[in-house]
Amino acid sequence: MTEKQKKDMKEYDIKKTEKCCLECGNEMEYYRKGKMFCNDLCRSRYHNRTKNWTRHYHSKVIGILERNSSILDDLIRQDITSVDLGDLTLWGYNIEYATSVRKLRTHLEYRCFEYRFYRSDNRIYCIEKLGPVKKKR
Q1: What helix, strand, coil percent values describe the chain, rounded to 5?
Q2: What is the residue-averaged pLDDT of the chain?
Q3: Quick check: is 87 in a domain?
């Protein structure tokens, strides 16, 4: 077999190999390595579908944080600075979510957007609303 015949055979094998589109499942001729979709519509649909879980999770977490912030705001308006965790959970507060946590000497400081508080095993205390940060000149 000559080199030209081998080359023609190899090209024929590559064109003959078929692969399925990841989105619609239709067989497509496999002309290049790495081709996964039959067209741009299928590629777009696939990526939108796979990213949907991430978008849903992010909106769920933001919703929980906003609810927590609203509950803390209600407590501040009523001049309550300390409350049992059991009462908080009854009001819909989710203690698993905070926008930040940092260690200060012996305590952990929790923040939920503009609210700051400390937490013990069964209470949160020193709830306060933080003002805007002033820039140093």
Answers
A1: 40, 25, 35
A2: 85
A3: yes
